[in-house]
# Entry
Amino acid sequence: MGCLLLSTVRAAPLSEASIPEARTMKNEPLRFGDYEVYFSAFNSTFIAPDIAKAYQLERSPKHGLVNITVRNVKDSEVGKAVTAQLDGQRKNLMQQSVPLSFKEVKEGSVVYYLAEFRFSNEELLEFSINVKPEGSDRSYPVKFRQTFYQDGK
# Structure
């Protein structure tokens, strides 16, 4: 498990990319057979106010977003975005678990899933997400830990 870095990794031109995605420190997605899963978690203030409003996302120093994108790379290195079923949770150090509710967002040929969550300043959270790509008969685990910081603190 690596540290997460924010970067734009979408198929749309940079000017069209509205929500940042991330890859692991090694700049590689998680690979499960024919599928690659890209994931990130970041403070919701990283999103422009107009984008947050358009997608009905709360933009606040105490709110974060998990972003998941799934690509089928069976026929090409770049792959094709696929829909998926996702469920998951986030836990704090006290092992208090809160379910994540993902909403599907489509921008042209790109499909990604967003889940909002709250956090305290300097809070370490553990994410555990199951991803079942369309056309797959199984779910794949995505697990990572990340510390979050409130803007202005």
